[in-house]
Structures are given as structure tokens and as C-alpha cells.
Amino acid sequence: MLRRRLFIGASLTLVLTRAKNAHALEADGDAEARTQITGLLNRYTNLIVARDYEAVAALFAPDGEILNPGSDPVRGKKVIAGFLSGFARYEILVYDIHPSELVVHGNTALQSGSYFQHVRDPDGKLIEASGQFEASWERNDSGQWQIRQMRTHS
Fold first, then answer.
1. Radius of gyration of the chain from its Cα atoms, rounded to whole angstroms
2. 68, 149 in Cβ contact below 8 A?
3. Rounded to two decimals, what is the model's pTM?
4. What are the boundaries of the signal sequence (predicted)?
5. Are 151 and 60 in contact (CB under 8 A)?
6. Cβ-count burial of 75 within 10 angstroms (0-12 exposed, 13-18 middle, 19+ buried)?
7. pLDDT recorded at residue 29
8. Is 92 a residue whose pLDDT tops 90?
9. Among 76, 137, 141, 154, fewest CB within 10 Å belongs to which?
10. Domain 2-153 of CATH type 3.90.1580.10
11. What gap in Å lies between CA 117 and CA 87, rounded to an integer?
């Protein structure tokens, strides 16, 4: 009977240790993913300010998309680069993105927060835009995070 209790106790300890270690690995993976995604959002912001629209489009998944209220989806890297290039003559005075939440679940993640833009259009008119954003991320087969969908709400 004592042997059986020791065996059950040792087995339970082993199971709990494995579960704890698996959870720790998952948490470490989430922390690494969070760091990578945060860095990529910062890169996205810097590339927008630099007006490097080809590089911005490269951050998207092959079938990634931009969704803006009242507009058709802009889907695919080449189409995204072309869409963004339409803003090449706009002078970006301020472009801030403030993420407030990031939830990682395996190879997908959802990030949300607020944004603010202050730009000068080609005619010299000052434009301010602000609102909320949601970015869906996915990890590709190479292990790299890419934007699956970038959605804004003004």
C-alpha cells in the first residue's frame, strides 16, 4: 500500500512538473512572440513615416489586407504597396500608434490600440486622423510573424 501511494504521489508530481514546464515554455514562447510583434509594429510605424511602402507591404502575409471604414479591402502585398504609394505626396508630420493589448495564441495574435496621424496633403491642407486599430498577426512556415489584417476605426 505504501509503495502504491509513493508511486501515485511520484506520478502525480511528474505530471504536475511536466504541465508546469509546458506552461512555462508556452509563456516563454508568448513572451518571445510578444517581443517580436511589438518590434514589427514599431518597424511598421517607422516605415510608414519613411514612406517606404514596399517595405511596409513586405510585413504583410501574401494575402494580407488593409481594412478601412467605407473602403474596399486592400488585399495582397503588391496591391497594398500600390495603395500606400498613393499617399507618397502626403507629408507625415506625426504618426503615432499606441498598442494597448496583444493576445498571442499559438501561431496567431491579435493586437489592438489607438493611432493618431497628422499629415499635410499635396495641396498644403493639414489633416488629422485618429481612432482605433486592430492588427491580426500570423506566424508563417518560416517562423516569421506577418500582418494578416490591419483594420482601422476612426
1. 22
2. no
3. 0.80
4. 1-24
5. no
6. middle
7. 63
8. yes
9. 141
10. no
11. 13
Q: Are strands 108-120 and 60-67 parallel, antiparallel or unpaired?
A: unpaired
Q: Are 133 and 113 in contact (CB under 8 A)?
A: yes
DSSP class of residue 125?
Answer: -
d(CA 145, CA 108): 9
Rounded average pLDDT over 85-95: 95
Side chain identity at 61, as an amino acid letter?
A
Residue whose C-alpha cell is 517562423: 143
34 three-class SS: helix
Which residues touch 112 (CB under 8 Å, ≥6 apart)? Answer: 99, 100, 101, 132, 133, 134, 135
Are 65 and 56 in contact by the 8 Å Cβ rule? The answer is no
Please state the length of the chain: 154
The position carrying cell 482605433 is 132
Q: Which residue has the cell 506566424?
A: 139
Contact 81, 69 (CB under 8 A): no
